[in-house]
User: Fold Precorrin-3B synthase from Lentzea flava.
Amino acid sequence: MRSHPDACPGAVELHQAADGGLARIRVPGGSLSAAQWDVVRLAALELGTGVLEFTSRANLQIRGLADGLELGARLRAAGLLPSATHERMRNIIAAPLESNQALVNALDAALCADPVLASLPGRFLVTVGASVSGLGGDFGLVDDVLLLAGTDTGVRVEDPVDALVTAARLFQEMRGSAWRLSEVDGGVRKITEHFGVADAPRITPVVTPVAPSPVTPGVPLGRLDARLLAGVPVRLTPWRSLVVPPGTDTTGLITDPASPWHGVSACTGRPGCAKSLSDVRADARAWLGTPHALPVHWSGCSRRCGRPQGDVIEFVATSDGYEEIR
Assistant:
C-alpha cells in the first residue's frame, strides 16, 4: 500500500525539477485547436525553455517555469484548465484516429462536475477506444465495454458517461491510499459486482501505435521545438506523436516508419532531472542507428520514468553504465 500521496505535477502546481518548475498540461483526448495549441507553444517560448515535452499519456509538459500563475491564467483563458480542483486527475487517453473527442469531452465534464472525484490521484487513468485499451487504464471504454484495471470482466454499459462516473466514485470510496484500481484488494471484483456482467464475448485489450507518416508525425525523444507547427490544430497521441492536417510542414519530425528515431524514447535525464545518473537523451542520440530490436526506452535511474506501455527493451542508467532490461 502506498505510504504517501502521488506527486504528479499539474499545470499550476509545479514540480521543482533541476532546471526549474515543471508543469504538466492535461489534454483529455489529446485534441487542441490551432488557437489552443498556439497558447501552449507561446507559453513554452515565453515562460519556459522553449521546448514542449510529450508524455506517454498524451499530455504536454513545459519546463523551466518560474511559477505556474501566468501559465495557469493563459490555459484557463484558452479553455484548457476548466477545473482547478480536478486538474491533476483529468487523464483520458483516446484512440487518436477515431472520432471520439465528443465522448471524451462529455466524460471530462462529468468527472470534473463531481466534487467527490477531486481527490482522485494524479495517476488515475481512463482510456477510450480499442487501440489504446491495453494502456493500463483504471477504466476503459470500447463501445459498450467497460474495462476495469485493463481487463474485460464482462461489464457492459448503456450510458458510458454515467457508468464511468459511477465507477470512479466507487474507486474513490474504496481506494484508501492506493493510486490505481489494480492496487485495491478486491477492487475490480467489487465494481464488477456493482454493475453485473453480460453474457457476451470478452475482448482482449490491445495497444496499436500510430505509425509515423506526414499526417501522424512522431516527435524525436518526445521533445518539440515550440516554434514549430504554428497555427496548426493537433491531436496528441500516447506514442509521443501528433495527428496533423494533410499538407502540414512536418520538418524536423518523424514521418518515415523506417526512421531510426521511430521506437526510441527516453526520460528527461540530466541536466533537467537531479535524480538522473546520465544525460540519457545525448546517449540515445549517440546510440541511434545501432542495430537493435525496438522499441527501446532510455532511463536515467531505477525509477524508469516515461517508460511506454507494452513490451519495451530498456536501457537503465547505473553507476557503472547502462543495464539492459528485456
